[in-house]
Amino acid sequence: MCDNLDDYILSHISAEPEHLKRLYRRTHLRHLYPRMCSGHLQGRMLSMLSSMIKPQRILELGAYTGYSALCLAEGLAKDGQLHTIEVDDEMEDELLELFATSPGGDRITLHIGDAEEIIATIDEIWDLVYIDANKRRYVEYLDLVLPRLRRGGFIIADNTLWDGKVTDTVANHDAQTVALDRFNTYVASHPELETVIIPLRDGLTLIRRK
Fold it and tell me: Which top-level group of life is the source organism from (predicted)?
């Protein structure tokens, strides 16, 4: 997307909340790979989708600096709760402080550790799952969460176009590209799922369990 069109879109959508604007800037100042932070456009998309679904229970795989969790939490139904799993234990204190001081953060429960180990320990039925963790394990994540996703529930998977590399896994045969192409193929052919890929940023896949 060209810069002037990107600027036009950002100036014609709902404003980025001030606490998220500060978080986005802090992420760029203090962290490696700040591109991993959702940002204004994708953040408003996540908030909108969550608000449309009105989930009681959200599971997020991959918290990073907490931006996407706060956006998803905006759409929670009354008494709703979001569980987020982050593998990097060095992020724990920062995330706990963020959730304790941000709007909606009191509805977020943080889990530190490997998502594949933690998923089974959370006794919930999910209305919405957001996958943005280890790209090599997307198929495995989906297989773990699907049995506990309610019928009619939704999964959102980030980075599924991977800078367009998924279109040519011969030239781009790194493990992440191959795994994301495997995930996209798996989801598209899965008999229980309906799916659409939105070419937003690095690719956002929306999945509904029939």
Answer: Bacteria
pTM beyond 0.90: yes
Separation CA 115–CA 35 (nearest Å): 22
Place of tokens 């879109």: 9
Convert the pLDDT of each residue in 158-175 to its tens digit. 999 999 999 999 999 999
Domains by residue range for the chain, with CATH: 47-209 (3.40.50.150)
3-class secondary structure for the chain?
Answer: CCHHHHHHHHHCCCCCCHHHHHHHHHHHHHCCCHHHCCHHHHHHHHHHHHHHHCCCEEEEECCCCCHHHHHHHCCCCCCCEEEEEECCHHHHHHHHHHHHHCCCHHHEEEEECCHHHHHHHCCCCEEEEEECCCHHHHHHHHHHHHHHEEEEEEEEEECCCHHHHHHCCCCCCCHHHHHHHHHHHHHHCCCCEEEEEECCCCCEEEEEEC
Q: Which residue has the tokens 């506990």?
A: 148
